[in-house]
Amino acid sequence: MSIFKLLKKENSARLGEVRTVHGTFKTPCFMNVGTLAAIKGGISSWDLVDLKCQVELCNTYHLHLRPGDEVIRRLGGLQKFMSWNRPTLTDSGGFQVFSLAKIRRIEEEGVYFSSHLNGEKIFMGPEQSVEIQSNLGSTIAMAFDECIANPSTRAYTKASAERTVRWLERCLSKLQDLNSKKETINQNQLLFGINQGSTFLDIREENMKQIAALDCDGYAIGGLAVGETKEQMYISWGLESPETLSRRFIEALTCLTVLCRREMRGMAMSTRGAGFGIC
Fold it and tell me: 4-275 belongs to which homologous superfamily?
């Protein structure tokens, strides 16, 4: 059963709603980024409600490091930890595979990191990412993937995109197992697959077909805003995922690109820029 209901479509614009265990939210929507389950600058969860924020976006990798996903699990998950009774979405740690490239190593089983805080060795694969997100109890979990740097060779991009599909299969299997356990905080946690392929449109198209066949709750377009031109980004945005499913553009968006089409968008720039008085 699809969680996304298309209410109206006009040309490329779509109006819809996403139904979740933590409530229904309208799309298009902007997700405030609370990387560590909080917005920098003293904005509380109550402030976000007043600002009509529908979904809060938190980061799996960073919350795993501090305060620790086990800590948050013992406290009842993100909803209680943040005093937030609306939907949450957790990024899988895939963007850190890109942003922390100098202190990580990718293997088929997953990614070996050296903590950017203290150098501690950390392993995160699909199963570990999903388990951390299950401990966090987020409404929507994102599949673990590699956000591919740009530029990358065609050969590397193809191999990485194929690995992302294999990792998605492992994420789905792990989540199914975790959601079946009574002790799991959110037994109705959803999983979104992530489309990769850099700026090679044929690789992206093939990757989308492969992940769509796995019947995820939703799909995202990842691996953009990492060095490609705006023109290349916009062309990649034109890739269609199944019409009945919600789509989201993951990586950092500029103020210009917020105007472009995707149902769910999240970025830290709005809060960061406001701190400097530029937004």
Answer: Queuine tRNA-ribosyltransferase-like (3.20.20.105)
